[in-house]
Design brief:
Length: about 425
């Protein structure tokens, strides 16, 4: 068994405490647990877009600048909590390629395209028959435009549709009877032809929606559940056999590494693995996987480190393990692990490096029985300085921790990315 690392954060120790550079208070009537970031007004810094929902449909949104001022707000004010047990269909993306970001979100019956700097509605696109509200929104390169200007929407687990930016249907797909789709489809250019294949569940689809392959397991029954996460480890510059995809299965309780042909390279079973991040977190490894396991008792929730060959390296046991992120905080080329619920930053060798300074809002949310899943963490270039910053947030508040050392991914857009997902 791997070593269990201690991540209990004791604020009375001499562990370095990180203070936030920005603090943003949200209007609770127009905010929710879902938060994405992007440059909405073209000033070179990210704005934070918080959305609340009712049974997935977006009911209210607020956009805030990093100085805490409100950019715009829309929707219906509510005072009750905003449930979130799924990705909320609200994303920031420059869908038309004009250099200005739009906000795309789903209400009942429609996908809305809104102007980024005002929230003004630009287009109201009717959802296909059989889809009351988009379960999530994914952008992909399917129709040969050269950029990710095509849009995938889906039901929770049964069907998905792909459209062009002009809302022309490209294809629709449903898994075979008895099987399910996934939380968030994953576009990946498996064959390096400039178009995206789509990991749509246990099945990989071609850009035109044809089924290419469905992976299988000799150890577990995949039909017990659905694909939780697909993390692109290596995208196929060398072809499908060189592509590497890390996948987790809900119900089947497994973590596996696949190549781009669907061949399983290794598999681990026996835990409810959820989200996967990939990065260089140990000096001796080109890359490792960091994966959390859900559905554990409070206080016994692990975040595993797994090697490229499928070996357990170690485990950070926390009160709640979901919503971890990776970031290089010191510019040494290795990434550290941000454990949002523990409010700690750790390395890949079992050491707590720092803790986020105490804050009453995060203590409230993270307490046993609080009824919230957060705090949550975002990582991305928020300030436009080329470094990957950290945002820790609840539905009421966001704290921004600026990073002056570790670079963002090469060519990374300002914000949290266009296909943001909690899975």
């Amino acid at each position: 068994m791997p070593e269990t690392f201690d991540t209990r954060v004791d604020f009375d120790t001499d562990l370095p405490l990180i203070q936030p550079d920005r603090s943003i208070e949200f209007d609770p009537g127009f905010s929710g647990e879902w938060l994405v970031a992007g440059d909405l007004d073209g000033d070179g810094e990210a704005e934070l877009l918080t959305a609340r929902n009712l049974d997935q449909a977006v009911t209210a949104m607020s956009a805030y600048k990093l100085d805490g001022s409100l950019l715009w707000q829309l929707g219906r004010k509510r005072t009750v909590g905003s449930e979130r047990t799924y990705d909320v269909p609200a994303q920031i993306y420059d869908i038309d390629g004009d250099g200005r970001c739009e906000v795309l979100y789903s209400i009942r019956g429609f996908l809305i395209v809104a102007e980024g700097n005002s929230g003004r509605e630009l287009a109201r696109l009717p959802l296909p028959e059989g889809l009351d509200v988009a379960d999530c929104i994914t952008f992909a390169r399917l129709s040969g435009s050269g950029r990710a200007s095509d849009i995938i929407v889906k039901t929770r687990y049964t069907r998905m549709w792909a459209f062009t930016m002009e809302w022309k249907l490209l294809w629709e797909w449903a898994p075979p009877e008895g099987w399910k789709t996934c939380h968030h489809p994953t576009p990946v250019d498996v064959d390096a032809d400039g178009l995206d294949e789509v990991m749509a569940g246990y099945t990989m689809l071609a850009p035109d929606g044809r089924e290419l392959w469905t992976y299988s397991s000799d150890r577990v029954d995949l039909a017990q559940g659905h694909l939780d996460c697909c993390c692109v480890v290596v995208e196929g510059a060398g072809g499908a056999e060189e592509t590497r995809l890390a996948v987790t299965g809900c119900g089947a309780d497994h973590l596996a590494l696949l190549d781009g042909t669907g061949r399983m390279l290794w598999e681990l079973t026996g835990d409810h693995f959820e989200s996967v991040e990939v990065g260089r977190i140990r000096p001796e490894a080109d890359w490792d996987l960091v994966v959390d396991a859900d559905h554990r008792p409070f206080g016994k929730s692990p975040t595993w480190i797994v090697s490229a060959t499928g070996e357990y390296v170690g485990c950070y046991e926390t009160n709640y393990s979901r919503f971890h992120r990776l970031v290089d905080i010191n510019g040494d080329g290795q990434q550290e692990i941000v454990l949002a619920h523990a409010r700690a930053i750790c390395d890949g060798l079992g050491h707590r490096l720092a803790a986020f300074a105490p804050d009453a809002e995060f203590e409230r949310v993270a307490a046993p029985g609080a009824g919230d899943s957060g705090p949550y963490a975002l990582v991305g270039d928020m300030t436009g300085n080329g470094a990957a910053d950290i945002v820790v947030h609840t539905e009421r508040k966001a704290l921004v921790y600026e990073n002056s050392h570790g670079p963002a991914e090469p060519g990374a857009e300002v914000g949290s990315g266009s296909n943001f997902t909690l899975y």
